[in-house]
Write a structure and sequence with these properties.
Strand content: 5-15%
Helix content: 40-55%
Number of helices: 17
Radius of gyration: 49 Å
């Protein structure tokens, strides 16, 4: 059972509060414009944890200091205290406790959420379904119907125009009208398991990629052309062991051959190679000259045979050419083909010894290489050999399938529950027919009903078409009556409240607060509000009370003689 017992307002300039005692059932306030009805409506939401700052509003600025609200829930009485000038000065206590230390607004809301959440497991399930942290504050969109959106049947909840409520309402409705919650819960558990596996594999992938980069960097330091791919660990270790042996071997050689000696040998070999290349060049030139001389000699001999008369001219030239050929030996220029090649091999051996030590050919020392070998072995130990890239892809694929199925199931509707809600809204509207001419007129239409549509959060009046030429059809019934729409909207609020409370699993304040517009032509329709309990015996207590014109502004207090709002100075400044 839930009921608000009292609300006490404490002014800045007076210690005596203005206290309003609530009665069980319906509390109906009636007063002229600017008498404080709207502020009273807003202030109830504020006392139940609304985050809006009221301190700068003209009704409260420099007039109201703080307020206390007393309410009963399941046999326990709670006292709420909120200060307007400090959002983090709030108090929450049982009625038999003394006031303690102030708490922040978020702590205040957490305590109230504990009070209005009947089932912690159901709340966890709801949060898992919506994938966000919802609380009783989200569900206050079912508690408050203000005057600005009265008569709205499309997206009919008043607070749904506020972005923080509008974003969450579709998920709430999907949860309320879903018959696949068991399957969704199973899929959510599977999704959570897959997410953990995916996270584990992705961490292994990141670690392995890091190891790959580090190992290959060290292999570069060692001057190796091999690349670590993750699958050739044995090959890398084998090459590393061989290199480590060479490094140790070169360290021993360094003891008998100084680096400077090796460099001198390397330079000498380099010079010898250059000389050999010069000799090869000269040899090629001599061979070319020799070929030219042979050609000249052959032509002179041919001319001498053809023209013996010119022998006195040709013979001396031929003799000189032959003498020149005999006087020069080309054997010393005939270099063995492998001479230069052998010299280069010797130079490479010396270079290898220098590379294994410290030389001008690499920036890395033997100690750097020794360290690189050690690091490679350590990094290879860190590589996760059990990592399977295919498993990662399979888990991602399955996770997508699970999420797609969850999305489909979350958007599916429990048609039976929606039709039952529609029937309750229709029944509530019909219960007001003896007080509302509009409702009485509507039910004279054939098959009149109010159908709720989850998509668009719509309350749609409908009638049946009994045309003889076609089968019976249900069609939308439109009317421009503001009073009719407001009454239907109120029935929607009440039917939702009954549905949510009956399931006993939502963080919901069991209260409905409405602020009607002050319009004379709507007063008769609002009288039918007091008949709603006929259809909601389990929701409200039968006792109700109506106050006289303007009583809320005339100081209804605990003892009847207390300060009024006016005496407190709580009025527009």
């Amino acid at each position: 059972m839930f009921k608000i017992k009292s609300l006490s307002l404490f002014g800045v300039d007076t210690k005596e509060p203005f206290t309003y005692l609530f009665t069980e059932g319906i509390n109906y306030f009636k007063g002229p414009n600017d008498s404080g009805k709207t502020e009273f409506y807003t202030f109830l939401d504020y006392m139940f944890g609304m985050s809006d700052d009221l301190s700068d509003k003209e009704w409260y600025r420099d007039t109201l200091d703080y307020a206390e609200l007393s309410f009963e829930k399941d046999g326990l009485t709670f006292i709420l205290t909120r200060y307007l000038t400090d959002i983090n000065k709030n108090y929450f206590r049982y009625d038999d406790e003394t006031i303690g230390e102030p708490i922040r607004r978020d702590e205040y809301q957490i305590k109230l959420n504990t009070v209005f959440s009947p089932n912690n497991e159901a709340l966890k399930e709801l949060r898992a379904f919506m994938e966000e942290d919802v609380s009783y504050r989200t569900f206050t969109l079912f508690n408050f119907l203000g005057e600005t959106r009265q008569g709205i049947l499309q997206d009919f909840f008043d607070k749904s125009t506020k972005i923080n409520y509008a974003l969450k309402l579709p998920s709430i409705l999907n949860y309320v009208f879903n018959r696949n919650l068991v399957r969704i819960n199973e899929l959510k558990k599977r999704e959570e398991y897959l997410k953990k596996q995916l996270d584990k594999l992705e961490k292994s992938a990141i670690q392995n990629n890091d190891v790959l980069g580090r190992v290959n960097h060290q292999l570069h330091i060692l001057g190796m052309k091999k690349v670590f791919t993750g699958t050739n660990t044995f090959d890398i270790l084998h090459v590393i062991d061989e290199l480590q042996y060479e490094i140790q071997k070169s360290e021993s050689a360094t003891k008998s051959n100084a680096i400077s000696e090796l460099e001198a040998i390397y330079t000498s070999l380099d010079e010898q190679i250059k000389c050999q290349k010069n000799l090869e060049y000269d040899h090629r030139n001599f061979e070319l000259d020799d070929k030219k001389q042979k050609v000249l000699l052959e032509r002179l001999e041919a001319l001498l045979v053809a023209e013996p008369a010119y022998s006195y001219l040709i013979q001396p030239i031929s003799d000189i050419t032959k003498d020149l050929n005999r006087s020069i030996s080309f054997n010393k220029y005939l270099i063995q083909e492998n001479s230069t090649r052998e010299l280069k091999k010797q130079r490479e051996k010396i270079k290898a010894q220098i590379i294994a030590n410290k030389s001008r050919f690499k920036i890395y020392s033997a100690s750097d290489k020794t360290r690189a070998v050690t690091l490679v072995k350590e990094y290879l130990e860190l590589y996760d050999k059990n990592y399977d890239g295919d498993s990662l892809l399979n888990i991602k694929r399955e996770l997508k399938q699970v999420r797609d199925e969850i999305r489909v199931l979350q958007n599916s509707n429990d048609t039976e529950k929606i039709n039952k809600l529609s029937a309750d809204i229709t029944r509530l509207y019909k219960s007001s027919a003896d007080a509302s001419d509009l409702a009485e007129f509507d039910f004279r239409r054939p098959g009149f009903q109010i159908q709720y549509f989850k998509k668009g959060n719509l309350l749609q009046p409908q009638i049946k078409d009994y045309d003889e030429n076609v089968e019976e059809q249900v069609k939308s019934y439109y009317t421009g009556s503001m009073a009719r729409h407001t009454l239907i909207q109120m029935c929607g609020y009440l039917a939702f409240m009954k549905l949510l409370l009956s399931e006993n699993k939502y963080p919901l304040i069991p209260i409905l607060v409405s602020k009607r517009k002050t319009r004379r032509h709507m007063q008769k329709q609002y009288k039918s509000v007091r008949k709603y309990p006929k259809g909601l015996e389990k929701l409200t207590v039968r006792k109700s009370r109506q106050y006289s014109e303007g009583e809320i502004g005339n100081g209804h207090t605990q003892d009847g003689n207390g300060a009024s709002c006016k005496s407190l100075g709580i009025s527009p400044s």
